[in-house]
């Protein structure tokens, strides 16, 4: 073989390792209720559990950034894959809460991992970020431009929550999840599906920005919960059906459904529409809250490490979030 010849593009990409990290500070719903009471706001464990399925979330300590959560998640994924930073030739970090305006959190992570030199960039698709990032990494591996990608979702959403708005601040948490995605002759990722509709920008957003040395506009999360709920239920169903059709599979082939962990009612409705029994639905929203781009890789890693997701299982990942963005990835693990 001519060593100068370009590498043949791989037919598939495959997840070879997963990892995740949660900051140690865990707040139960009772803790949230006490925190809000200090601001004269009322909430309860009963209200939060009944409407969302959330029982607790983790918040990063002051000064802890997205890259600080991403680093141990990435290291755990590399270890699980039997790889080191030297093997990595692509880093994508999905985040809406980056360490800085620039450079990217991916570059900060790259330096801390010691994977300097490879391509590294952030991807911003809010709660669909990980599904978007996995799709981009899969495309780059199949095109022959990368062989060993680190795909990370990392968020410190606690930094953009309005703790005077009880309808949103109880929903979110901080964390990071990561996978190593490698070129493979065997599947792997079977099909991907991405969508966005920018006409819904206003229903879920952080409308502020940095301008002229100060914050312009409101830098805290705003959400029309009911509009988001309705849209999410519809697009998660259509994305699931589209990705299954693309891969030539049916709902009956799905061993595990790992949707974005926003709200148990949205997740159960998605499973029900796909006629999947509740035991095939991976749920971490109860303990993590909504960690935006980190939620899917956090849930995947939890399911892998607990022995539920096994090699060869067919897994349907789904994302939905601000933008509005949504998408799905079907894979054989
Ligand atoms: N504690 C107690 N009461 C509350 C709280 C709270 N934390 N928040 C709102 N309430 C009250 C409201 O004030 C209202 O009271 P009222 O009837 O006296 O006016 C009542 O509860 C009902 O409020 P709604 O907003 O109508 O409650 P709803 O049933 O729509 O639930 C929720 C709100 C949970 C946000 C729901 O709309 C939802 O889950 N939407 C999906 C949004 C989502 O999951 N977003 C995550 C990010 S987006 C994404 O990741 C896709």
Ordered list of secondary-structure elements with their pairings:
Blueprint (H helix, E strand, L loop, with lengths): L11 E10 L4 E3 H9 L7 H8 L3 E3 L7 H16 L8 E5 L10 H9 L5 E5 L5 H14 L5 E9 L9 H4 L4 E11 L4 E8 L7 E2 L3 E3 L2 E3 L5 E2 L1 H23 L8 E4 L4 H10 L11 H4 L6 H11 L8 E8 L3 E8 L1
Helix pairs in contact: 3-4, 7-8
The structure holds acetyl coenzyme *A (ACO).
Main beta-sheet annotation: 5 strands, mixed
* Rg of Cα set: 19 Å
The total domain count is 2
Q: Pairing-aware structural class of the strands and helices?
A: alpha+beta
CATH class category of the largest domain: Alpha Beta
Name the CATH superfamily assignment of the largest domain.
Thiolase/Chalcone synthase
Beta content comes to 25-35%
Secondary-structure element order, N to C: EEHHEHEHEHEHEEEEEEHEHHHEE
Observed structural traits:
333 residues; alpha+beta; Peroxisomal Thiolase, Chain A, domain 1; 2 domains; 5-stranded mixed beta sheet; 4-stranded mixed beta sheet; 25% strand; binds acetyl coenzyme *A
